[in-house]
Structures are given as structure tokens and as C-alpha cells.
Amino acid sequence: MRVSGNDGGTTAWSAPLALAGGYLEGPWQAEAIGLPVLSRAEIPLGQPGQLRHEFTVGPGLAKATLFATAHGVYQAEINGSEVDDQVLKPGWTAYADRLNHETTDVTALLKQGANAIGVWLAGGWYTEKYGFHGFATPFYGEQPAVKVELHLEYADGTRQTVASGPEWRGTTAGPLVSSGIYAGESFDARRIEAGWSLPDFDDSRWLPASVDSGAADSRAPGSKPWAEATPAVAPPVRRIEELPVREILTTPSGATVLDFGQNLVGRLRIRVSGDAGRRITLRHAEVLEDGELSLRPLRLAAATDSYTLAGGGEDSGEEEWEPRFTFHGFRYAQVDNWPGELDPAAITAVVVHNDMRRTGWFECSDPMLNRLHENALWGMRGNFLALPTDCPQRDERLGWTGDIQVFSPTASYLYDSLGFLSSWLQDLALEQSHRNGVVPIVVPAVLGMLESPVAAWGDAATVVPWVLFERFGDLGLLGRQYRSMCDWADALLRVRDSSGLWQGQMQLGDWLDPAAPPDKPGAARTHGDIVASAYLFRSLDLTAKPRPCWAPTTTTANTQPSPKTYAARSSPNTSRPPAAWFRMRKRPTRWLSCSGSARIPSNARHLVTGSRNWPGWAATGSPPGSSVRRSSRTP
After folding, report:
1. Residues in the chain where the model's pLDDT stays below 70
2. Domain range spanning residue 413?
3. Contact, 230 vs 22, CB < 8 A?
4. How many structural domains compose the chain?
5. What three-state secondary structure class fits 393?
6. Cα 275 to Cα 209: distance, rounded to the nearest angstrom
7. Pairing of β 580-587 and β 632-634
């Protein structure tokens, strides 16, 4: 592209940019298929495996595009080569309402004549158990399934479609023995069938794939309806960085532990030679306790990968392996049953997260502050994997809404997180739509707890979109999320008491106040009612922003509430106070700015000091307003 000015001048042409659209052909021709089973009792929950299919490509192929999505996670291969460098596709969404699909140009992988496509498939987040303290249960489905559709376009204009269906064949007897987000992955290299994703492979021992129709009588165990698949808007998850072993430790018990010198999220890649059948185990943890690997913080997450060697003698060479469908939060890894002396160069930590563009930096003369900043940066990288989570290591890793509500300003400074958080906000709105405007405390909503509004957590519906608008200026995002914001504001108005405050209800409050007892993280010094009423004002104020900022251009009065509604309810004086300017350095030479303002009640000092006595609000039902100018500037 290039830009033309009013004076007739033009810029130089920019570098070419290839854009791939999503699936635009109407309903998918592909059927959802799973691994071959005869009964539910035959395979464990979330059994991984492989699927394959052969097809013929005619002469004059001009373009080939692969579309795929899954209940679970998948990796596709064509003619023995992986179709891309993405991992853990298609991520985690509110499965009942929305699926991501990937669009991949695979023209270069095909040839005239016989071709084959293969798919590794595992349960991932779809078949995981969610819950706490031993009460975790499957939430979505029992077994994974995938939809695959390959569109072939020829030079003469003809088209051909290769789609997943019952003619595909699959196996659960392959090398991927088990796989789980929390548990880890087990791989037996003795069970590898060479050439399984190449044409002319003998799959006579494989069985027909099961068809997951989404109906109760489907042959696929635990079949669930399939939501519409839409193009992924978040950057994909990729292998971002590799870290070498910093030190090999021997613990007091004699175990071998690797120290990578950095707390990270990802998995290990190993290169090893040894006898067939030797099983190497890799256990991951963030810290040591009394010199040993500390597994206590992981709770019920095993966080253990295992690899069984194929062997084959001295001439077989090194075997290389990295888990496909799991990830761990760790700095340390305990290695058991390694053959011979462990060479630190044989094991590498592979950092995995969504591939976002870095946009913000910080550096100063104090090394401790620099390290603190680096810790925050690594913490963000580890928790921006498929969705914004609270932790990457234990049996949780959920999209807690309060966490990202607080962290979104920092996240959008350090990285271009617009696509990543926009995707997650779609799921927030969908989950909220089933709860009469109430935002669940985690998104996707897999915890059946705290179904009533929770301050600071539910306010992610208003705060995060506004933060993204401040940082990136995307009015379209505000338009898409406006209904969600209004629904949350309406939910808040329903929980106010006669004084106009939000009080007397269960709140998480100032969670993890450093002064709170370790066994009572919610016992903060600031009362939960203060937090709730403060966020009540904040969300109503954001929802009442002027229409040029908030409302989508296609909105009608019948489909969207008026911002004046919330302005009137959040302040008795609806005139706008002086504008305050926010400015954020996105890159060294680029600045974005937007105008924002807030009306602060004159009794705000009571909210700050922690007093339970709020004069004015109790008497009038709404806070007496006083215009307060606020401004901030982040370098």
C-alpha cells in the first residue's frame, strides 16, 4: 500500500503483505471426527491419537488452503511435514459458543498425484478436569474431535475439497500414549509408525474414524454440539525462545535437577541415545524446597512428561523429542532414568506463548528495578498462552477476570495485546450472555462458584475494553463490547442498595493483600464493600462515556442502551468535567493519546481511608459530585 496526500504527493510502496481470510464458503463440508472407539469403556478420558487420509491432486494446482478446528488440540501434517509452526491449536475458547479455526496456505506441501494428510489429536483444555481440592471434574467433553477441510484451486478454475469424514482412519495405538494440560505427556517412541502421514502408508491396522455429530446418539463418546468456527484473531501460540541448562544440581536425595536460571513457561526438548524401552521422566517445578524439587505448589498437577526410547542399537543415532500438547511453568526440572551421564547440551527449555509483538521497554540505573521489570515481563509471557491466566504451573491456569482487569494497562504497554485480549473479550461477552449480564470470575467459565456479581472481577467487562481503546484507539472493539459493558452496568444497578452503594454481599475484595494471613488471602485490610462501591462507580463511569467514543456506528436505539442512562445513574451532574489526557509510548517514535475524564464523589476520602460511614450517599441515594481533574503520563 501507499498513501496519497492532498497535495498530490505519494509515499513509496510499502513491503508486500499477504492476508489470508477465514472460512467464507458457508457451512463446513467437513464432519467432526474423533479417534476410533467401539465403547466409552475402551479408552480413558481425553485419549490422544492420530488420524489420516489419502487423496489425489490433479495437474495445474494453483492454491491449496487448509482450514481446521477442534474440540481439543491438534497438529496437522501433509506428506510428512507439519503445515505450520504453531502449537496448541486452536487454543481455548468458550467451546459451547465459539471456536477458533486456523487458515493455512499449504500449496507448497502438495504434489500432483497421491498425497496424504495426518492429524495428531489430543484433549487439551477440552477434556481437562476443572475444580479445586480433589473435586475436579470434566467440564466440556470426554474425547477430542477435529474438523479438517482442504480447498484446492486449479489454474483452469476448477475446485476440489478434501474434508474429514468417516472414510478417514485413526489409531490410539500410536506413540502418543497420554496427554493432559495439567498431567503432562507420555510418548513411547517404540510405537512410532514411520511414514504415517505419507501416501501409500499401510493403515490396514487402523480403524475408521468416529463421527462426532454433536448428537446424543453419536458414535463419538461424550459428543457435544459444535459452535460456529470463526477465524482466530489472537496471534498464534508458538515456540518463542530457547534457554540452555544453567546448572546441573544433585539434590540431598541424590536426584538430578536442571536449573535453567529463569522461571518460564513451555516444555523441554531432549536429545538422547539408549536402549529400547528405557523410560525417561521429566518433572517440572518453579522452586526448590529443602534442596528438592518442590511439587507442593502444583497441588494435583503432575506436570510430568515421559519419553520411552525406541532404541535400536549403537547405529540408531540420537532420538529427539518435545511434547506436543502440554506446557509447564518451571525453572527447575528433575530428570530420572537418563541413560549414562547427562550432558547439559542434550536438554533445552522451549519457551511457549502467544506470539505478540513487543512494544514497551523499561531500563534504569538500578539493577534490582530492572530485574523486577524482567520478572513482570516473564510473568506476562507465561500467562498469555491461549488466554490471560492467573498461573501457568498448578492445576488451575484459568482466565481469572480480576487478574487481567488489573494487569491490562501493563500488558498493553509491554506488548501489542489487542488481538489477544480482543479474542478473550469475545468469550467474556458470550459467557456473560448466559448469566443475565453477570460476568463470571473466570473466562471461559469452568467453575461453578460465585455466580453473583463480584467487584473488580466482573469489571473486566468495562475496564479492559477501555484500556485497549486508550492504548490502540480501536473504536471497533468498543462497538463490539458495548453490549457486554451495558449488561454488566445493568447487573451492577440491580445489586445497589437503597443508599446507592454496593455493599453487604460476598466479595473477593483486595485479594492477596500482602498484609493478609497466608491461609486467608481474602482477609484484606480494605473492606470488600469499599472495593465494590469504588468499582461500581468506575464501571458506570466508563459505560457513560460519550457516544462518539462508545457506540458502534450500526447501533440503533432498540439494540443499545444510551450512555446517558449510566451518566445519570453514576453522577447527579451529567456535565463532563475537564478532559484529562493519557499518553502511552507504544514504540520509541510513536505515541497514542485519548481523552478521558471521571467524576469523583466529594466523599471519596472515606473510600480511601476505609471508613464504613459514607455521609451523603446514604442520605441522598447518590454521591454528591465534584469535578476533579486527573491526569497521568506514562513515559
Report:
1. 20, 38-42, 133-134, 213-224, 313-316, 546-635
2. 399-634
3. yes
4. 3
5. coil
6. 34
7. parallel
